[in-house]
Amino acid sequence: MSTALLSTADELHARVRHGRRAVVMTMGALHEGHATLIRAAREAAGPDGEVVVTVFVNPLQFGAGEDLDRYPRTLDADLKLAEQAGADAVFAPSVDEVYPGGEPQVRVSAGPMGEHLEGASRPGHFDGMLTVVAKLLHLTRPDAALFGQKDAQQLALIRRMVRDLNFGVEIVAVPTVREEDGLALSSRNRYLSPGERRTALALSGALFAGRDRHAAQEALRARAREVPSTQARAEALSAIGESRAAADAHAVATAAPGGPAAVRAAARQVLDEAARFDPPLRLDYLALVDPADFTEIGDDFTGEAVLAVAARVGTTRLIDNLPLTFGAAS
Q1: Can you list the positions of beta strands (E) in 205-280?
Q2: Crossing angle, helix 32-45 and helix 75-85, to 10 degrees?
Q3: pLDDT range class, residue 237, cuts 50, 70, 90
Q4: Of these residues, 34, 116, 125, 214, which one is catalytic?
Q5: I need a surface site. Which of 186, 225, 276, 330 has the fewest CB within 10 A?
Q6: What does DSSP say about strands 303-313 and 316-326: parallel, antiparallel, or unpaired?
Q7: Sheet of strand 303-313: strand arrangement
Q8: Catalytic site residue 34?
């Protein structure tokens, strides 16, 4: 298989299409996380379909003082990885191709959902991201577009834009890919020194601690629900000295509070410790949010939630998240 390298929309539109077209949008510096997306796109496109990978470093989503100039550009390596993962074409347009009249005067607004978390930390970021995603969806004309769950807020906003503005494209989420030590794959990981990387592991460590605290509490509550409901059954268990369910009920009663508060506390403990490392972790935010609008959930919340974290290690800013389920659904 030979992957075509295209730089203009006209070249892309001239390609003959026989089946579904699946698109993976990237800013280059491809890694195994992107390869996973491309392989998923290959499956989504089907044997007769086409996979297109876009490589475009979008200036609109970088704020003042961010790393636009030093963001890695590795097109030759990107083309090779895309080919190995099963892409039919790499669309790598210039800034002039995407924004022929200069910076666009009309842009997509992320609205209230884009003002939380990443939007609060990086004003204007999501407006720039949605604008380029809208442009690339029009330029590539896919049937499906695949995005990683590591950028959970981005994924939610893209889904909302596609639904609200009737784009007519299927948005497919692909689970986060992690390295063996748990660090979420990111093009920015290459900026980390060995010491910074050790500190950076606190991001995933905090998420895992929150997840484990939630799982342990749910397990205790499930066992507590198995406490005998009749006095005769309780007396029978006591007679043989095997009232394990009652013991678990006591453990639940005396344990630290569960639910969202416990999840936040467990994650925060890991991050607080990492703040004392050398080099230290500088926390941007830790949040447990409703994925519908990315606002913080209350202690009585039930349903799907996202535990999200962002922090700086040295000069590198990293993000990560995990999905959790609270209440009866869990």
Answers
A1: none
A2: 40
A3: low
A4: 34
A5: 276
A6: antiparallel
A7: 295-296, 281-290, 303-313, 316-326
A8: yes
